[in-house]
Design brief:
The complex is a heterodimer of chains A (about 375) and B (about 150). Chain A contains 15 helices and 8 strands. By secondary structure, chain A is α+β, with helices and mostly antiparallel strands. Chain A has a single domain, classed as Orthogonal Bundle (Cytochrome-c3 Hydrogenase, chain B), CATH 1.10.645.10. Chain A has a 3-stranded antiparallel beta sheet. Chain A has a 3-stranded antiparallel beta sheet with strand order 6-7-8. The two termini of chain A are about 25 Å apart. Chain B has about 150 residues and is α/β, with parallel strands linked by helices. Chain B has 2 domains: about 100 residues, NADH:ubiquinone oxidoreductase Nqo5 subunit (Beta Polymerase, domain 2); about 40 residues, no CATH class. Chain B contains 2 helices and 9 strands; from the N terminus they run E-E-H-E-E-E-E-H-E-E-E. In chain B, the strands form 3 sheets. Chain B has a 5-stranded mixed beta sheet. In chain B, strands 6-7 form a two-stranded parallel sheet. In chain B, strands 8-9 form a two-stranded antiparallel ribbon. In chain B, strand 1 and strand 2 form a beta hairpin. Classes of the chains: A alpha+beta (about 375), B alpha/beta (about 150). At the A-B interface, helix 1, strand 6, strand 7 and strand 8 of A face strand 3, strand 4 and helix 2 of B.
Chain lengths: ~375, ~150
């Protein structure tokens, strides 16, 4: 009813168009109030908060170990990365470092999930631009990752696999065999998917030279992750401030200097190739030993007390995901604050899509890789 | 150089600068000139008798991290949007959730909740037992109400 209404032209001859919150190309519940001059976008006002649950408040009311499941539901296509982000902060605050084996397992799982998250993005971006075929190829490969997750921890998306002081289930030989099987066949499939995009003239026409984002502007707006690297800034938290065991792994940061939609596409695909490289190294290096810190046994978990302030950054599939945790010596966090990369990336949309065609607005907002569980929290 | 109230090191090894709120914008400008171009996060912390605002900054070239802290007794803090554009939505969110008024902000509206929502949820004295419902008016705008109405 309301979604399709177009207002009468104002003094400039601009009309106001309401996009969303149920518009299929907004990847969830993004509502855009767009002012149009003919087909040219003049002003955009994003309206968000439709998926707002105030996870920060819920986490303040819960024990440290309970907060984890709310992080799964923030970036629901990259839950492992969210768990890594929270635990980086919580383990530093509580003083319970995970054993070596758990750290390597976490790296493997986080990188597998990064691949799955980028595949979801690629498939959905194809849909935005009217390509149906790559979607199926992307989701077939993603399903293979989710099968591995099911094998390891019993659930597909909201895994709740990691916990304070380690992980819940150990890796066994079958899982390692499955992962190696996946990484062996995936690169070829990835190139198939890649060529189905870049050999398409329409795809190139809609991405090349559109949505130019200069590096200074990107930094000023706090944009991070593949968005920033596609603008030519070599900034990846995995290299800048290595967490877990990323400093012992050999990989590159993909950077593109094209600055446009196509650059963001290329950077994300190159990141998947690098993730495969990381997984192949990490799986072979997983050491023997405990996968759980005995100081954080399940029965002791709710008695963990933390004091002080910790700010921990991690690189999720969307960008710099960080958690600021303040403890007052009690069993619950005094204050928990989440930096969601999607929210910061969304804040640049009014700048990026100004003075473009309305069809390009969809092509640009697709490259932001928005997940609304994380934007609204 | 702006006069600092205190300089400490946090539990995570980051430098923490404490500054009076009158000098905040000046300090931010100086830090940006030193290379701290990436404002990562703005956090408001409710310390019951006062409100604390924490800014996390990152120097990309030297790979250095820093936290800037300031306090306010009257819920008012100067806005740093003139220095960092990324502060815009962060400050709106903190206004929404904590009720911190950022003076000089170009568009200080609630970010997630409807405009007429009563209270600021992340404050420690926020009453969780009072349920508010969100409804839509004829223009498609959301508004909050204590009356559940027919829709619920």
């Amino acid at each position: 009813m309301v979604n399709t209404q177009i207002s009468k032209p104002d003094d400039n001859g601009w009309v106001e168009l309401n996009m969303g919150p149920q518009h299929p190309s907004t990847h969830g519940v993004l509502r855009l109030k767009v002012k149009l001059d003919g087909e040219i976008v003049k002003e955009i006002e994003p309206v968000i908060g439709y998926l707002h649950r105030n996870a920060e408040k819920i986490c303040e009311l819960d024990y440290y170990c309970d907060s984890l499941i709310y992080f799964d539901r923030m970036d629901y296509v990259g839950a492992m990365n969210m768990e890594v982000g929270y635990l980086e902060a919580a383990e530093k605050l509580l003083g319970i470092p995970p054993p070596e084996r758990a750290q390597w397992i976490r790296v493997v799982m986080a990188e597998l999930n990064r691949i799955a998250a980028h595949l979801v993005w690629a498939g959905a971006y194809g849909l935005d631009l009217g390509m149906l075929t790559p979607f199926f190829y992307c989701f077939v490969e993603r399903e293979k990752v989710l099968r591995i997750f099911t094998e390891v921890c019993g659930s597909r998306q909201e895994t709740n696999y990691m916990s304070i002081g380690g992980v819940y289930q150990d890796f066994n030989d079958k899982i390692i065999h499955d992962i190696l099987e996946f990484t062996e066949q995936f690169p070829k499939k990835l190139e198939d998917i890649f060529s189905s995009f870049v050999k398409n003239d329409i795809f190139i026409a809609r991405t090349k030279g559109i949505g130019i984002l200069e590096p200074e502007v990107a930094l000023d707006y706090g944009v991070t992750g593949p968005m920033l690297r596609a603008s030519g800034v070599e900034y990846d938290v995995r290299k800048a401030e290595p967490y877990l065991v990323y400093d012992k792994i050999n990989f590159d940061i993909p950077v593109s200097y094209r600055k446009d939609n196509l650059a963001r596409f290329l950077v994300r695909f190159e990141e998947m190739r690098q993730s495969i490289k990381i997984i192949n190294q990490a799986v072979k290096k997983i050491p023997d030993g405990p996968y759980f810190n005995p100081k954080a046994k399940k029965s002791l978990m709710i008695r963990l007390r933390g004091e002080g302030e910790v700010y921990a950054r991690t690189e999720s599939s969307k960008g710099e995901f960080s958690v600021y945790l303040v403890g007052d010596g009690g069993v619950k966090p005094y204050r928990l604050r989440v930096r969601s990369p999607s929210l910061k990336n969304l804040s640049i949309l009014p700048y990026l899509a100004k003075d473009t065609m309305i069809a390009d607005l969809v092509a640009i907002s697709g490259t932001l890789d928005l997940v609304f569980g994380e934007v609204d929290r | 150089m702006v006069e600092l109230l205190e300089e400490t090191t946090g539990k995570d090894g980051r430098r923490v600068l404490k500054v009076a709120k009158e000098n905040l914008v000046q300090l931010m400008k100086e830090l940006k000139e030193q290379g701290f171009v990436h404002l990562s996060l703005i956090t408001g912390v409710d310390r019951k008798d006062k409100l604390e605002v924490v800014y996390h900054l990152h120097n990309l070239e030297k790979n250095e991290y820093i936290a800037v802290k300031t306090e306010t007794l009257d819920e008012r803090v100067p806005s740093v949007t003139s220095v960092f554009t990324s502060a815009n939505w962060d400050e709106r969110e903190q206004f929404d959730m904590m009720g911190i008024v950022f003076e000089g902000h170009p568009n200080l509206k609630r970010l997630f909740l409807p405009e007429n929502w009563v209270g600021h949820p992340l404050r420690k004295n926020y009453d969780l037992s009072k349920v508010q419902y969100i409804n839509m008016d004829e223009n498609g705008e959301d508004y909050a109400t204590f009356d559940p109405g027919d829709g619920w």
